[in-house]
Amino acid sequence: MTTFNGNVTGQGRKIAIAVARFNSFVTTQLLNGAQDALVRYGVASDDIDVAWVPGAFEIATIANQLAKSGRYDGIITLGAVIRGETSHYDYVCSAVSRGVAQVGLETSVPTMFGVLTTDTVDQAINRAGVKSGNKGADCAQSVLEMIDLKRQL
Ligand SMILES: Nc1c(NC[C@H](O)[C@H](O)[C@H](O)CO)[nH]c(=O)[nH]c1=O
Ligand SMILES: CC(=O)[C@@H](O)COP(=O)(O)O
After folding, report:
1. Which positions does UniProt annotate for (2S)-2-hydroxy-3-oxobutyl phosphate binding (predicted)?
2. Burial of 45 per CB tally in 10 Å (0-12, 13-18, 19+)
3. For the whole prediction, is pTM greater than 0.80?
4. Is 25 annotated as a binding residue?
5. Residue 44 CB-density burial (10 A; 0-12 exposed, 13-18 middle, 19+ buried)
6. Catalytic-residue membership of 88
């Protein structure tokens, strides 16, 4: 029996990050977490590209273009969708989650879903570097693991 585990190594990897500007007080912290983790794992800062989009709904479109460019070993998507008074939250969450998943499946480029979907502002803040970790840093580790795992298979 052969068991495969991806190594979290960043040497020589090229990563693109698609991040939403909406709720930038949260998404900026997610981006900082992702960039800091990638560099700590050995990714050269010059090999990290960042694309800012208006909101989470636009993330998948740009992630798709980044993945299909052939320039990147992996993609990280970052956003913060915080529930409001209407059902708009549900449509945005559904669209971005399905869209990001489709990018990874269609392109075979590891594409991480780092979009927070929360009921409150506090929940989002806590997941962007406060009491509940940093989803951006989590995605940095996961994308490097997935890149290496794919190279083993
Ligand atoms: N309410 C949130 C949004 N809404 C904006 C949409 O993402 C989109 O930009 C707009 O509908 C135009 O297409 N976006 C977030 O990222 N977070 C939210 O909480
Ligand atoms: C996630 C959203 O789109 C939401 O923040 C919009 O707020 P509202 O539903 O009150 O218009």
Report:
1. 85-86, 127
2. exposed
3. yes
4. no
5. middle
6. yes
